[in-house]
């Protein structure tokens, strides 16, 4: 059983590498697409025509496939927290490729993530043995998990229909909240599908059960929703902000959902559970230390009259007159008039 957890651990590492890389590639693709058309954050879909975005998407798919297989061999409370390693990959690559500086405290955050992940791996519970997708269905329709599913769906719908149009562009918790809540249901469905595929390959056909197809439809719906709002979050906010908050929310909700549905902590001692929770808190601390040391994205110029930096000197000639903007000066109304006159000549 522990060899099964080891397989899941290795697959989770591979997944984190590809997913962390995909954040950076997709971000560069979104930036390129935003130059020539509406940005994803305001409902634009020009990134679908950007090859760089698709490369990032392929990288994410490969990572998710590895993650998908990892859930077959190891419990969600082991696989999901290891997603923190993708934040380290993302932070390092963002430093070199996006110009988002990684400070010394950011390196400490990376170290905390590694230490916390190690503690989680050492104290992770054993994977529960399941022999049919119908067993998973029985776990999914127990009253406790049905209550969680209803609450998660209600929260997601309120965020999508009410908060997203009003506060999505200014409050990162809106988009990330949608991804996190829906993501917990995605993981439960994917785990069910993965086990069904594994059992089918071993000779016990699970495709004949309608429950398998219900899990598949739920997973597809949740994945599409997650990708849409994750793209909007990435295009609106700094990658270093999105990654740790998304990780914290997604991991917390997934561990909660898995604990309710699969009873992962059943049979574990109090000290083991406490150690694993300490590891999780250490990883969370690392992600937020990493986030706190990162610089925000520079504001994007949206029109001709966006205020210019007071530290830049300008030398303008118009109608035979000379005017110079000094470092300590603000913009003069006459300067804007000159710009307008020259613009319409």
UniProtKB/TrEMBL annotation:
Membrane topology recorded in Swiss-Prot or TrEMBL:
Multi-pass membrane protein
Calcium as a keyword? no
Q: Where is the signal peptide?
A: none
- The record lists the membrane-crossing segments as 6-25, 45-66, 72-98, 105-125, 145-163, 172-197, 209-229, 241-262
Q: Where in the cell is it found?
A: Cell membrane; Early endosome
The UniProt entry, under Pfam families, shows: Mg_trans_NIPA (PF05653)
Q: What is its main location?
A: membrane
Q: Name one GO cellular component term.
A: plasma membrane
> Family, per the entry?
Belongs to the NIPA (TC 2.A.7) family.
Q: Give the quaternary structure.
A: Homodimer.
User: Which named protein is this?
Assistant: Probable magnesium transporter
């Amino acid at each position: 059983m522990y060899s099964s957890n080891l397989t899941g651990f290795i697959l989770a590492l591979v997944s984190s590498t590809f997913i962390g890389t995909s954040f950076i590639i997709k971000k560069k693709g979104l930036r390129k697409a935003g130059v020539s058309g509406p940005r994803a954050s305001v409902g634009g879909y020009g990134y679908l025509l950007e090859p760089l975005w698709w490369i990032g998407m392929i990288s994410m798919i490969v990572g998710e496939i590895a993650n998908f297989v990892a859930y077959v061999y190891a419990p969600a409370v082991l696989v999901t927290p290891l997603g923190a390693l993708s934040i380290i990959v993302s932070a390092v690559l963002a430093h070199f490729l996006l110009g988002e500086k990684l400070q010394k405290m950011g390196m400490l955050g990376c170290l905390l993530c590694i230490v916390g992940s190690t503690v989680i791996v050492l104290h992770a519970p054993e994977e529960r043995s399941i022999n049919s997708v119908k067993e998973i269905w029985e776990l999914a329709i127990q009253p406790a998990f049905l209550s969680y599913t209803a609450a998660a769906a209600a929260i997601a719908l309120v965020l999508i229909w009410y908060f997203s149009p009003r506060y999505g562009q200014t409050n990162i918790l809106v988009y990330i909240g949608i991804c996190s809540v829906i993501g917990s249901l995605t993981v439960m469905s994917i785990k069910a599908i993965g086990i069904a595929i594994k059992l089918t390959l071993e000779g016990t056909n699970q495709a004949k059960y309608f429950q398998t197809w219900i899990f598949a439809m739920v997973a597809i719906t949740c994945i599409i929703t997650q990708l849409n709002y994750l793209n909007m979050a990435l295009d609106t906010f700094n990658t270093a902000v999105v990654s740790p908050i998304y990780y914290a929310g997604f991991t917390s909700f997934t561990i909660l959902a898995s604990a309710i549905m699969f009873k992962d902590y059943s049979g574990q001692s109090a000290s083991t559970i406490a150690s694993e929770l300490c590891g999780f808190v250490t990883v969370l601390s690392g992600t937020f230390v990493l986030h706190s040391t990162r610089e925000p994205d520079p504001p994007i110029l949206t029109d001709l009259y966006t205020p210019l930096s007071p530290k830049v000197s300008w030398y303008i000639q118009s109608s035979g007159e000379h005017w110079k903007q000094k470092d300590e000066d603000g913009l003069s109304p006459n300067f804007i008039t000159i710009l307008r006159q020259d613009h319409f000549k």
